[in-house]
Amino acid sequence: MVVDDAGENAPRTVTVLGSTGSVGASTVDLLARNPGRYRVEALTAGRNVELLARQALALRPALAVVADPDRYEALASALAGSGIEVAAGPQAVVDAAGRPADWVMAAIVGAAGLEPTLAAARRGAIVAFANKEVLVCAGPVMMEVVRQCGATLLPVDSEHNAIFQVFDFARPEAIDRLILTASGGPFRNASRDEMARVTPAQAIAHPIWDMGAKISVDSATMMNKGLEIIEARFLFGMPEDRIDVLVHPQSVVHSLVEYVDGSVLAQLGTPDMRIPIAHALAWPHRIPTPAARLDLARAGTLTFEAPDPDRFPALRLARHALQCGGGAPTILNAANEVAVQGFLEGRIGFLDIERIVERSLTTLAGDAMLDLDDVRRFDARARRFAADLVTKSG
Ligand code: NDP
Q1: Residue 140 C-alpha to ligand 1 middle, in angstroms?
Q2: Beta strand pairing call for 85-88 and 63-66
Q3: Distance between CA atoms of 124 and 238, rounded to whole angstroms?
Q4: Could you tell me the sign of the dihedral formed by the alpha carbons of 179, 185, 190, 191, in that order?
Q5: Which of 105, 139, 156 is the last residue of a domain?
Q6: Both 152 and 176 in a single domain?
Q7: For the segment 197-248, what is each residue's pLDDT rounded down to a tens digit?
Q8: Domain annotation covers residue 230
Q9: How far is the CA of 23 from the centre of ligand 1 (A)?
Q10: How far apart are CA 330 and CA 317, in angstroms?
Q11: Which CATH number characterizes residue 339's domain?
Q12: Does 150 lie in the same domain as 29?
C-alpha cells in the first residue's frame, strides 16, 4: 500500500469519476471546502452537463468530460472561454482516469465504471472506491491490476470504509469475521405481497441514505448487501463464510470486525457519506467535515437483527455467485443492473428483479474468468439474457 505523506502540505491532485452523482457531488462538496489542499485534474459525468459545468467552474479542473457524446456541444458551450479542456465519449472518461492525478474517486454507477477504474489503477493511483459493481463484476482482474501496478484501493462504501478503519492489516490472521451492517432499506418490515406491489418511487425513497436510484433499489432488495459481501471478499481477502450481515436500521454502527480473542471493533458516525469520503480524500490524514456529529444520547436505542433470507433472497443469490466463482458474480451483477433498470422504467415488478437475477445465474454458465475479455463476455451475455427476460416479463 502506498502512503502519500506529502498530503499534509502539498496539494493532492484529484480526479472525480461520476462527479455529478450522489457520491461524486459529496466529493465535490468536500473539495470546494478545502481549496488549498486539492488541485482537480478532471471531473467526469454521464449526461448531466449542467451540473458538470457548474462543478467545473467552481473547482477549475484541467479537464471536464461527459460520457454521452451527444452532450459534447452543450458542455463545450457551457465552458467556452473558461480555459477548461472539454471532451466526450466513454473513451474520453477512460483517458481522464489515466491522466496524472494522485487520487481518483471511482463513483460511476455500475459496470460502466470498470474501464475507467482500471485505467486509474494501472498507473498506480490511490483509488477511492465507491463503485462496488467494478469489484463484483471483475474482482480477480481488478485486484491483480492493483497488485501489479502498486495502486491503493481505499474503500468509500460506508461499511467497507468502517472495516478499513478497524482492520488490522498487519495481523489479518487475528481476524475471525467481518460483520457488514445493513439498514434493511424501505421494505425492512414489508411482506412479500406488499413488495410485489411497490413502485419505483417507493423503492428509491430510502429511510436513511440519500443515494442514486440504482443503489437505492439495490438497498430495497438487499442486493446491495449481497454486492457488498462480494466487495468485502476482494477488498479484505476474507472468505465468504466469514462475512456476516446484521440489520441495523439506524445506520450508526457502519460495520464491525471480530477478532479471535472475542474483541469486536466498529466504526460509528452519523449516516453522511461525506465522512467516509473525507476519510479516503485525506488518507492517511484527516480533514474536518460538515457532517453532524454523533450524539449517542440523542440517538437513543440502537437495534440489531438478523436479515430475513426468505423475504430478501438477494443475499443468498450473491453468496451463491461468490461460492461459484468464475464468471458467476459478473453474471449476477449484469443481470441485476438490467433488471433494476427495467424496474425503474416501470417495465417489470419489484420481485421480478430477484427472479431475473436468479434465472440468469442458474441458466448461464459462469466458468473460469481469467482476464478482462472474459469479464466482457460474461457481462454482455448476461445483459442480453436478462434484457430478454425483462421484455418477456413486461
Ligand atoms: P448516482 O446515480 O447518483 O451517480 C452515478 C454517476 O455516474 C453520475 O455522475 C453519472 O453521471 C455517472 N454515470 C452514469 N452512467 C455513466 C456512464 N455510462 N459513463 C460514465 N459515467 C456514468 O450514483 P451514486 O453516487 O449513488 O453511486 C455511485 C457508486 O457508488 C455506485 O456504484 C454505488 O453503489 C456506490 N455507492 C454509493 C453510495 C451513495 O451513498 N450514493 C454509498 C456507497 C456506495 P450523470 O448523472 O451525469 O448521468
Answers
A1: 22
A2: parallel
A3: 23
A4: negative
A5: 156
A6: no
A7: 999 999 999 888 899 999 999 999 999 999 999 999 999 999 999 999 999 9
A8: yes
A9: 7
A10: 12
A11: 1.10.1740.10
A12: yes
* Cα(18) to centroid(ligand 1), Å: 6
353: left (phi over 0), alpha (psi -120 to 50) or beta: alpha
Report the chain's terminal Cα–Cα distance, integer Å. 48
pLDDT in tens, 330-362: 999 999 999 999 999 999 999 999 999 999 999
The CATH number of whichever domain residue 29 belongs to comes to: 3.40.50.720
Residues 335 and 248 in one domain: no
**Residue 206 to residue 219: CA distance in whole angstroms:** 8
Quick one: pLDDT at residue 376? 96
CA distance 35 to 374: 42
173 shares its domain with 304: yes
Say how many Å lie between the CA of residue 394 and the centre of ligand 1: 26
With CA atoms as reference, report the closest residue to 49 among 31, 25, 66, 28.
66
- Hunting for cell 405481497 — which residue is that? 193
Is there a single domain that holds both residue 161 and residue 151? no
Nearest CA to ligand 1 atom 21: 46
Exposure string for 36-47, b = 16+ CB within 10 A, e = fewer: ebbbbbbbbbbe
- DSSP E strands in the chain: the ranges are 12-17, 38-45, 63-66, 85-88, 103-106, 126-129, 152-155, 175-182, 243-247, 253-259, 264-268
Report DSSP letters for 124-139, one per residue: T-EEEE--HHHHHHHH
Domain that holds residue 26: 12-156
Q: 274-326: per-residue pLDDT in tens?
A: 999 999 999 999 999 999 999 999 999 999 999 999 999 999 999 999 999 99
Q: 44 and 116: one domain?
A: yes
- In the chain, the amino acid numbered 38 is Y
Query: Which grid coordinates are listed for 265?
Result: 471493533
Query: In terms of domains, do 56 and 32 share one?
Result: yes
Question: Which atom in ligand 1 lies closest to the alpha carbon of residue 218?
Answer: 34
In the predicted structure, residue 6 carries a pLDDT above the cut 60: no
Is the separation of the CB atoms in 337 and 385 below 8 Å?
Answer: no
How many residues are listed for the chain in this entry? 394
Same domain, 190 and 301: yes
Strand ranges across the sheet with 152-155? 85-88, 63-66, 38-45, 12-17, 103-106, 126-129, 152-155
Residue where a domain terminates, one of 246, 280, 309: 309
